[in-house]
Amino acid sequence: MRFQAPQLGALGVTFTALRLMQFVSLVTIIGLTANFINEIVTAQREAPDVLIGTLTVASTATLYIAVTYILYYDGMLPLLITAVMDFALMVATIVVAATIGKPLSMLKCEVLAKVTSNPLSSGATFVASSQGITYRNVITKAVNYFAYVAVDRPHCYEIKAVWGLSIALCVLFAFSAVICVGLWRRVKGAAALDKDIEG
Question: What stretches pass through the bilayer (predicted)?
Answer without folding.
Answer: 20-38, 50-73, 79-100, 162-184
